[in-house]
Structure formats: C-alpha cells, structure tokens
Amino acid sequence: MRAPVSWLRDFVDLPDGLDAGELADRLTALGLKLETLESTGSDVSGPVVVGAVVDFEEETHSNGKTVRWCQVDVGEGAPRGVVCGARNFDRNDRVVVALPGAVLPGPFPIAARPTYGHVSDGMICSARELGLGDDHVGILVLDPDEGAPGDDALVVLHLRDDVLDLEVNPDRAYALSVRGVAREAAIACDREFHDPASALPAVEAGAGYPVRVEDRAACEVFVALEVAGFDSSARTPRWLARRVQLAGMRPISLAVDVTNYVMLELGTPIHGYDRDRLRGDIVVRRAEPGETLTTLDDVDRQLSPEDLLIADDRGPIGLAGVMGGAETELGGATSAIVIEAAHFDPVVVARAARRHKLPSEASKRFERGVDPTLSQTAALRVADLLVRYGGGSVAATATVVGAPAPREAITIDAQLPSRVGGFAIDDDTARQALTTVGCDVTAAEGRLTCIPPPWRHDLVDPNDLVEEVVRIGGYDRVPSVLPAAPAGRGLTRSQRLRRRAGVALAAAGFVETPCPPFVAEQDWTHLGLPADDPRRTTLRVHNPLSEELPLLRTTLLPGLLRALARNVSRGEADVALFEVGSVFLPGPGHRAGAPSLPVDRAPTVAELKELEAALPDQPLHLGVSLCGDRVPRSWWGPAQAGCWADAVQAVRTVAAALRVEVRLVAAQHMPWHPGRCGEVLVAESSVGYAGELHPRICRELGVPARTAVAEIDLSAVIAHALGSVRAPRLSSYPVGKADVALVVAADVPAAEVEAALRAGAGELLESARLFDVYVGEQAGPGRKSLAYGLRFRAPDRTLTDAEIGGARDAAVAEAAARVGAVQRS
Fold first, then answer.
1. Which one of 93, 335, 358, 483 is least enclosed by Cβ atoms within 10 Å?
2. CA 458, CA 452: separation in Å to the nearest integer?
3. pTM confidence score
4. What angle, rounded to 10 degrees, do the helices at 238-246 and 254-266 form?
5. Which of 235, 79, 211 is nearest to 150 (CA)?
6. What is the C-alpha to C-alpha distance for residues 473 and 31, in angstroms, rounded to an integer?
7. pLDDT per residue over 528-557, tens digit each?
C-alpha cells in the first residue's frame, strides 16, 4: 500500500518535525513493514514557476521543424522569451516554466541557451519532464485558477511528497487504505486519529435504483446511490489526481478518479455505472452456464457457475468485486451515474480473480476483507465529490439491501497477554490497547470482553487479542528466551547423513540453491522426456502460487537448470550448484485428491489413513549442475574446464562422505547426452544418473554447451548407509603392489574392467586405481589400454611374492573372461 504522508496528515496530527523515515520505523514496529520510502519531487530543484503565455509566433526552420517563440509572464513584470516545440497551448494559458538554474529529473539542468535563432530563457515543461507521468505528447496546461504567474509550480502541482510503500500482510487488510494506515500512524505517534468515515453520515435508505440480491450469502450489503446532471467533461482536481497517482494508480477521468480515491481513502471498493446504459433492475446472482462478459479491459471472459455477477435485463454487466463490464462503463457522454458500494464474500471474490487471472485493486481488498459497515458512507463520499467537482445533484435516498452481521464478543483473561508476551502488562494497559485498535471493551472481574471492530476480520479468538495487546505494548519488550533443549535428543543419524552430503559438496566448491518445488508441463518437453516417462506423472496443485507453475516436481533438474541459466545470464560463467530437496512421486496406489477434514474436532483414524493415502511418495533427491571452468586460468597455467566427469565426481564425493560404495555403468537417459551418461548403482540398485546434458537440451534451456548435471535418490543412498555400517579393516602388515595394463574394446567401460579385477583378485585386494588410459596405434584400432595399480594386503601376515602374483594373475584372468581383456606385456 502506497500512502502519501500528506494524505495521512489529513487524519492524524503528526508531529511537525517528524521525519518520514522515523514514521516508517514506528509503523514497522507495529507490524506494517516498509518496502520503500519515496521522496517524490526531490529530484526537482531551483525556480520552477507558473507562467502565463502572453503571445507567441510560430516559425518553421530549414530542418522542417516548427517551433513557437513564446513570450511568457512569470511574475517578473516583463515576459521572458522561451522557445517551445509543442503546440497544444494557446495565448493566456497557464503553463509550468523551469527558469535558468532549475534542475529537472534526469538530472536535466536548465540554462538560457541559443536555439532556433533566439535565446530561450527557460523551458515550458511537459508532465514527463516534471516527473508527473509518462505524458510527453504536449505541454502541461494548468487550469486558469491553478496559481498566478510567478507562483511556485511545485506547490501548485503537489509535486513534493513522501510516500510510504508498505508491505501489508493478508491479516491486516484494513491497512490497504489511507484510513487504516493513518490509524496505525496515530497509534505509533500517540496522536489523535480523525476517522474520515465519521466525517460523513451514512446515506439515507429509501427509494433508489432497483436492486435485487439473489445470493445473500455472497453479497451481504449492496448500496446503490444515484447522481444526476453530472458533467463528464469536468477535470479532476489537481490535488485529487496527484494523490491517486502517488498511491500507484493512473488518473483517468473525474468519475473514475473519485471512485479510486475513495477506495484508497476508506478501503471500500466502489464501482460506477452509466445509468442511461443500464437495462432494468440490477441483479446480484451467480453466473449461468454459457454466459460471457466483456470486462473493462476489453477481454471476453467465459463465466463459471461459481462466479458472482452483477447483471441487468440484458445479462452480466460486471464480475462482482473484481471488475466491471464494458457495457455500462462511464464515458464522455455520461450524465447520470449509479454508484455501487457493496460487500462481497472474500472467498467468492478471491476465487473469481484467480479463475479469470484478473487481479485488481478491488479484488485485492475484497479477498482480504473490507469494512462492511462503510458501504453507505463510501457511496455518499463518492457522490459528494462527484457533485462538488462535476456538478449535478445527489438523490435524497439510496437503495440499501442487507446489513452487516454483528461481530461476536471474545472474552479473555486480562493477564493472558502478560503470560504469553513474557513481560508485565496490567489489566488497564491491556484494556486500553484493545480500545486503541477499535475494540469495544468491557472489563469485569479480571476478564476482558471485546467486540472487534468491523474492519478487523482477523480478530476471531483470544490469541488474536493477545497479539494486539503485545503489538501495541511493543514487540521490543518481548524477552528473548532460548528454550532448553530436552536431554538425550538431537539430530537423527539420517539427518546427520543428509547434512554431511551437503557439507561435502559445499567443501568441493558447489553452492547450495534451494529452488521452489513447482514446475510447468512444458518443463518436461524442454528436458526432452518421452511421453511415457514416469517423471511426467505429476500432481497438480489445486490452488498454485503461480498459474504458470501448477505442478509438483518429480525431478530437481528444472529448478537447478533455471538457476544455472539465470546465473549465466547475469555474467557468472563458472557456476557449480547443488540442491537437496523432496520430489513428489504419485505411486500406483496413490489416491487422487486429499479429503477436506473438519476443524471442529480431531480427525479419526480412518480419516487420517485416507489423508495419508492421498500423500505421494516424497523421497529426498540430490542434484548438481555445473558449467564453465572448475579451475580458473592464472599464472600457474591455463584454465581447466568442467565436464561430465565433475558431475560423476560430485556423486562419488557424496558417496564417500556417506561411506557408501557406488558404481557407474554407461546408460542412455534423457536429458543426458547418450554417450556421456552414467547410471549410478548402489548395491546393484539404480539410484540416479550423472553426466553431460544433451546438446539440444542445452540450447532449449539457454545453458552453456557441455553443461554437466547429476541427480540421485539421496533417501535411497542414506537408507543403504544406515543399513551397511561396518568398521574399516585395518592391517599392520606391509602392502604388496602390482601394476597391470589391459587392452579392451574401446566401448568397454572402465568400471566393468575394475569390477572384474576386484572379483578375480579376491579378499587380498585392498584397492584398484586406474592411473592411465591409452588410445593409439600400439593398442590397435577400436581398442584402448587401461593401466591399474593394484594394492594387496593380508590382515594376519606379510604376503609373499607368489601370493601377490597369484592374486594378480587371477584378477587378469577374470578380466579376460568377463570383458575380453588382454594383458599388455
């Protein structure tokens, strides 16, 4: 919510010397967090004055451009000569003139300078040049009564102001209005609050434009007030348009600006209908199958039977609480207006706005909750402003359908806030705090009975009242007490292993990147997954945060690769990321759709089982993505580019940290490169894949060529680690070493050769390490040579040369049998 400080001062006697930053700090302490503090007009300085165009001459120059040589009265006795390229003003018009010495936004200093054969002694300004908007079509022309020549234009234009842009939580919907922010400012500064809603009486109910509400549950109150004889050509007062603009909305016309102004002021959305374009009674009802509505944004919308509509005899004329229809839009020929001020059900409005992807200022307020008692007052406030600045008359009575339901009283122990807050709060202080926020409080026998104000829909139980007392008392008074940890508890071994995996990758140079668990259907296409790939079987979120990402992920790769692409696009060429997070895998027995459990009692065992059946399998996965150089270029030598081997090594690093043995075999699995992909096996069970990303996928996702990725089922690896814990076998006897070089077919994986050597050598083999790969003439066409260093050791004796040689020969023989290896001499 953007709240100009000058507007707040209309309703709160803020201290004269109070800085806007200090006011923002006090509001933040009350729970209204400051997003930004904008000092509008601070980038304009020097003499900027109101001028009157005395005369001008139009001149066309050799470059084809026509300019005006103007004589402008700026209150100095003699007019100044100013060259101007715009022609949307006339003699005697009031304009804004920046005199030499002024500085406009940019910064753009103004000086007397020769141009088009004259010395232009200043500049006649447009709205954009003053920072008042994007209008640069012509000069900003003022109304005749907007200042005299020489007056400070910054004051006339209301250019300078401090604007608080506040983050409003959903439970503080009342702060989506200047009225609500001013109330909080009054509390923060301990000053009197002048409620704008009390300045006008409620409009008298009686005969008015006929209204029929068919769904009273969705429309609690509906007020219709008529204004006749309105001059639609009347201009919006400068102060009103400026306040609407500072609050973040675009001034359009007097009628529209007034409705927006009152909505911003009181928090009650207002809509106006051109009375002459209405056909019959106004009806509030649900949509019928097949109905459509063209909204004010000129979009034809297919309506749902769940939509709440405003209709007349011809059909829908508005989507209740969201946006009006084009059929009854206020326009240049409007002379009679029907003002609608209603209170719609928050859930109905929220679902309609989400269903039609049509968020609006009105729906943002309705779905969070507005004051239902202000409808009549807001309607009269709009009518008075319309008549004051656009002429006409207000009907003596208005149609009023329905009435707001009374709030239920809440009773609490007066000392409950003190016990919960952890600091002393006496009964009278608690009562005063609740009265300050608008509650009607009765104190008796150590208990407080409160009727919440109609604008505080979030106050529904004793704990809500406690929060208000503590908030007013000051969050800074709540003591910081660290609870004592229960003895004998801590992280489980599974949790420690999970952390160990992350620490190992961080130590290897990877950066953890938690990604949102939501994906889109097109992500599977971008990854090149086949139509029958099980990863395409996903759960759709019923009420997603973003309609563009409605699915729960079955793999970490979309988020990791998006993060990688974003880093690369920001100039980070060398990136290594990892994530540990859950994926959501609906199995064969998964029940579609979770049941809605009651909130007035604990769920039964059967209901809990039904709920659990709706939960998908949620294993923990670990993924990495990397590109660029893993070793930078420096004085010690050239850079070393990262490749598929680094993704494989990341998996091995995690496995070593968890003390789990992994084996990789060649595989083909999208989105990996078919020739540079390894399947990760633990105890002969597949737990994931590692390697280089497919070149087509790299292009599709906008990541560098040869990007490497890996993803493993960390839950499965941890489960294996938990079930296979054994102490290492140590021997004090000397090691025996032997090297072997084996020639195999070029397509035989080194892992298979190593597995054969280990199987043949038996228990005496301590380790086998590949230290050389040779491909060349001596190996033969289509062949390669793999050299391994073998280490042998016995736990109870020193091995003889014969034992070492026998084990080596057995290893070579097994490799020959399994993969056709031939030992090089």
1. 483
2. 9
3. 0.70
4. 50
5. 79
6. 12
7. 999 999 999 999 888 888 888 999 999 999
